[in-house]
Amino acid sequence: MDLSKIKTLIDFVGRSQVTELAVSENETTVRIFRNRPGRAAFPDIGVGGQNLSEVRQTEAAKPQAGLVVTAPVFGILHTSPAPGDPPFVAAGDHVVEGQTLFIIEAMKVFNTVTSPCAGRILRLTDVNGSDVAAGDMLAEIE
């Protein structure tokens, strides 16, 4: 799908009452979301018996003692470099600044999420393979 078509779709969503649009063409899918006042920006997706908004609320309610690493973009969270590989990090692991913690896949682009500091992983998200929104808590480093 070329850039002009994507821009046209974005303009359409911006001018209409549509809050979510997914268009596929030649093995490429573009998903466009728009936040409406008073409504969640992203649909709830089931995660371990809870919907994603419940998971986010639970994570937000937990006291935080360390530095929180959040998702920089909306996409699919991957905790390991490839299916079947061990995760990049586990709770309790010591990390160094710049170490890869996660990969977020957004429109076939793989965004690496790295540790902003050295420390020990206190908590990790458990939504591997599911959608995350920009700003969602992924890890906490002490």
Task: Please specify the SSE layout and strand pairing.
Layout: H1 3-15, E1 20-25, E2 28-33, E3 46-47, E4 50-51, H2 52-61, E5 67-70, E6 75-78, E7 94-95, E8 100-106, E9 109-114, E10 119-124, E11 131-132, E12 137-141
Antiparallel strand pairs: 1-2, 3-4, 5-12, 6-8, 6-11, 7-10, 8-9, 10-12
Produce a short descriptive summary.
The protein contains two helices and twelve strands, in the order H-E-E-E-E-H-E-E-E-E-E-E-E-E. The chain has 142 residues and is α+β, with helices and mostly antiparallel strands.
Strand percentage: 35-45%
Q: Any idea of the CATH topology of the largest domain?
A: OB fold (Dihydrolipoamide Acetyltransferase, E2P)
Give the fraction of residues assigned to helices.
10-25%
At CATH level 2, the architecture of the largest domain is Beta Barrel
User: What's the SSE pattern?
Assistant: HEEEEHEEEEEEEE
Give the radius of gyration.
17 Å
Query: What is the straight-line distance between the termini?
Result: 43 Å
Largest sheet: 4 strands, antiparallel
Supply the helix-strand structural class.
alpha+beta
How many separate domains make up the residues?
Answer: 2
**Number of helices, counting only DSSP H or I runs of 4 residues or more:** 2
What spatial form do the alpha-carbon principal axes imply?
Answer: elongated
CATH top-level class of the largest domain: Mainly Beta
What would CATH call the homologous superfamily of the largest domain? RNA polymerase II/Efflux pump adaptor protein, barrel-sandwich hybrid domain
What strand line-up does the widest sheet have? 5-12-10-7
